[in-house]
Here is the input.
Amino acid sequence: MWVRCNPNPVGKETGDCVIRAVAIATNQSWKEAYWALCEQGAIMGDLPNNNAVWGEYLRKHGGRQFLLPENCPQCITVQAFCERYPKGVYVIGTGEHAVACIDGDWYDMYDSRNMTPTYFWKVS
Here is the structure.
């Protein structure tokens, strides 16, 4: 089920989906996740929302990445992913968006149920 969630400290609805998803999945505040990703980005010489940056951050914190089929009919939606993985904490990547999935619910500013993930990180 979709859980409307925007941990942005001033309630902005901006292009910060990676920060929101990482914050939710790692049980950090938005600011904690933002600064941690900025630090990782500085180490790697890249922006904090770059896939390699947030992926490395999750990897350093015990996360494991898995790929999903990109081509339909084998592809699945965010909702189908969350139904398929009803236990655990994940960050789902669609290539253009990131969303946290916790115990079968997806946490996002808007209902992203119909987006097609291409990979995910198992956080715990």
User: Anything to note?
Assistant: Residues 2-122 form one domain. The longest helix spans residues 30-44. The chain has a mean pLDDT of 95.
